[in-house]
Amino acid sequence: MKNFAIIVSTIFAATGMASAATGSFQIRSTDFASLFNHSDRAVQPKQVPWAGSYFPYGYHGIADDSQQKPSFSEHYDRTFHQGRLQATQWEKTNHSCDSVEKELQEGCKNWWGHCNAWAAAAIKEAEPRNAIEHAGTRFSVGDQKAYLTELWMDSDSLFAGDTNKSVKTAGWVYDPKSSEARTPLDYGEGSTYDAFWDVTPRSFFHILTNYVGLMGTSVVIDRFTGDEVWNHPVAGYRFLPIRKEDRLAAVTRSGRTLYPVFLRVKLYWTNDGVPASYLSQGFDIRQTGDDERIRRTWANPNEFEGRILKFTLFLDAPIETDAAGARVLSAGRIVGEGIWHHQQVKVARPDETHPDFIWLPTRLMSGSGDANPHIRSTVVSQIIRGEPQKEPRRSPRPYDTETKQPVESEASFSPGIFRSRNPETLSRLITIALAREGVSAEVPSERITVGADGSVTAVVSMEQPSDRLASILSEAGLTTASLRPL
């Protein structure tokens, strides 16, 4: 890879800062009107996540031989481990219900698996759609999806939301004084009740509209609010028109007049209940309607799913819309975290309502112990991309052959807003922005420096410079003054 220094200037806004409830997600825009109106209220990511399998632990993960023989892991073993079943044995020991305690067996067989890894792979990787010949062996679509999924069991991420999966969902979600509701979290501060409701309407609205909307990337939701984990990548969303009755009467809070607005949004996600070899048939958010029904508009009923979420946000100025309520003409800023409709109106299944947490994979990690160590990223890269995954390295400083002087290329970038000076956060943001556009790069946080004036210099290692770099970083909220090879 070649190294390029990106000189980044950041603009810090005094208003509209992200709330703590959005966790490590960085919120670029808090302008309610533009976020609501974006893409005529119907949005899907640039790459809709592909459907796949969560490789359940009840079938030994990717060592499952019910879908093909030999299993995905055994096929890998026989090709690259010369018949030694290292990956398969590891999978049957670590990604299998056979190895969990008796009291966890039922839950393990019902829902444990690789859903987090599949969701990350479905966002970060192009869908394998054809069998590939490599090393004299044919690797099926199922093989490729299994190996990509296994790699993404270890990933770094942006994250919002607390959770307590040890307490089964019951009536305590509506009774903050009950003993179950007051159970302290195993980590952090707060109670189980706080954790149940902590992906607030405001944080949900801001993460959804900033990342899926403005940035065009999917995010992962745990769509099961209660004691199970069901990770799914978002396929799209549609805000429904704001009706006259949705503009609620003004209220006074702490001497301040606020203007509540009742919102309805259809949220769609990709499913993981299809065979590993399945080829996604596609999703188009424009085919969904403005009614409250979640009608199937896609070919395979098992490929996507959706639900409607309703919540109230409080603005510091009245909201004005066109006659149909389809477009917001003006609105105030969001104040407070808002209220879920199912907090005010009890529902039969509160654990199937708002997301329990939201996250976005940023890059592969190694060493956490969750991924099968015998499935190697370099080998998977050879299979799928036809060449080894190259390690980042610093290239010699290029120079003009006539003047013998270093070559520098200047680039102009559109203004943008980013509110963090933290090198780790900046590293993640630049990596995400580039990866979303198919540019493979490494952005080590230790090679990011922040000047006293707020300017940021980041050394980025990439295969080659991209003529799309300006627009990519501009979309990510970075104003880049110059780009020069090192």
Model description:
- The chain has 486 residues and is an alpha+beta fold.
- The protein folds into three domains: 2-10 and 394-485, Alpha-Beta Plaits (2-Layer Sandwich); 23-49 and 156-161 and 198-361, no CATH class; 57-154, no CATH class.
- It contains twelve helices and 18 strands.
- The strands form four sheets. Strands 2, 5, 6, 7, 8, 9, 10, 13 and 14 form a nine-stranded antiparallel beta sheet that branches. Strands 1, 15, 16, 17 and 18 form a five-stranded antiparallel beta sheet that branches. The protein has a two-stranded antiparallel sheet with strand order 3-4.
- Helix 2 crosses helix 6 (141-151) and helix 6 (141-151) packs antiparallel against helix 10.
- The radius of gyration is 24 Å and the shape is globular.
- The N and C termini lie close together (12 Å).
- Mean pLDDT is 84; it is low at 8-18 and 388-419.
Structural key phrases:
486 residues; alpha+beta; 9-stranded antiparallel β-sheet; 5-stranded antiparallel β-sheet; 12 helices
Query: From the helix content, strand content and strand pairing, which structural class follows?
Result: alpha+beta
- The radius of gyration computed from the alpha-carbon positions, rounded to a whole number of angstroms, is 24 Å
Poorly predicted regions are 8-18, 388-419
Shape: globular
Produce a short descriptive summary.
This protein has helices at residues 32-37, 72-80, 86-94, 105-111, 115-124, 141-151, 192-197, 201-215, 341-344, 377-385, 423-436, 469-475; strands at residues 2-9, 42-43, 132-134, 137-139, 155-160, 220-222, 231-239, 251-253, 256-270, 304-315, 320-321, 328-330, 339-340, 358-364, 441-442, 448-450, 455-462, 479-485. With 486 residues, the protein is of the alpha+beta class.
